Amino acid sequence: MGRDKSQLVYHAKPQRDHLTDLLRPYCKRVFWSVNAQQAAELNGTTQPYIVDAFDWPGPLNGILSAFRYDSAGAWLVVACDLPLLTTRSLDALVQNRDPTKLATVFYDTDGRQPDPLLGIYEPAFAPVALEAVAQNCFSPRQLLMQHPTRLLIAPDLRELTNVNDPINRQLV
User: Fold this and answer.
1) Phi/psi at 12 (5° precision)
2) How far apart are CA 172 and CA 168, in angstroms?
3) pTM of the model as a whole
4) Which domain, by its residues, includes 49?
5) pLDDT for 1-46, tens place per residue?
């Protein structure tokens, strides 16, 4: 997209602030996942954040960085580019969580593969993901497809609309 997606405004405030407010009822604490450049721009914020701990791009870096911060807790992961997300999907995710699986996620908008950018990742996910990284696999979707994962049908597929592509921004 060429710019920080978390700063895009869809709900009269930056998306990361909107999502923080949306997630507060579901989490003890809400953290922002940021890279080193974003962290340098956050001087003075009271919002807790976790800086990417690894030297590779992509969402697996943020997920594993969260587990490095707290390896014993499950992590509710929400991508910053889901502006149509509501409590309806979050409620479905939390109510249908299966802690015996590596993660609980929705099928993607095509209904064929897991969507790794909205889900609950259990502590057992981290060692599996670190092993995959050691074998040059950096795709959380691939990991979810290859390991025990609770897959749900989203109550409203529109909520999974990812605006990483500027074309999808027109849908918002």
Assistant:
1) 65, 15
2) 7
3) 0.89
4) 5-169
5) 455 555 555 666 777 888 999 999 999 999 989 888 888 888 878 8
